[in-house]
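User: Hey, my collaborator sent me this sequence without any context and asked if I could get a structure. I don't really work with proteins. Can you help?
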Amino acid sequence: MDAVHPIAEVLSKAAGGDFPAVDGAWQRVEPWRPGVEGVVAFTGHAYLAVDDDVSDGTLDSLSPDGFGGASNPRLVSRLAGTGWIDALDIILVARGTGGEPALVPRSDLRNHPRAEHATSARSEVTTFGYAAPDDHTLVTISTGLGGLPELGLETDPSRDHVGTDVVRDALTLIEEGDVVVAACAPGNARALRAFLAAGFEPVASVQLWRPER
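Assistant: No problem. I've predicted the 3D structure and written it out in structure-token form, which is a compact way to encode the shape of the chain:
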């Protein structure tokens, strides 16, 4: 059995209400996906997933800490170099509901911009939606943060779908009781409200980058 990545472990614990100590500290961990690094920050504690070409001394010199320092834009920019940097997102967690899936596989949505974005930073991205072929609501399930299942979605603007209902339908794609994560931009208030209303809880923040140092 593959070892559980430390980020998967800490997010799974947070889903059960067990959070890291609020001690202002930070920890270094290995990246969970080749070519993608990131910072996951909880209240008063942070994790930096950085490849081993960056020395501990270099990280120390950037003054990370668990009180926001690990997410400092200057630190992230230094580690990313000239590479792509993603937005700073809220991490939300929930548990799958399983049962009869409310969505169907939709390979025709594989080239949707959101699916392509998911593929750039996540692994094993699969696309789902509603059965009507002219409904372009998209749900992605991927291997995401720390190797946990990660959910993304975009509703079809021509339809009357309620975002909360789409999120709840998406949770039927995850085994009952399994932890699933989602990343949402703080300014995307409509999506954030939908995730919260469907039972997701905010636990941390994340920022990813593909380094070119």
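In plain terms: The first helix runs from residue 6 to 15. You can pass these tokens on to your collaborator as they are.
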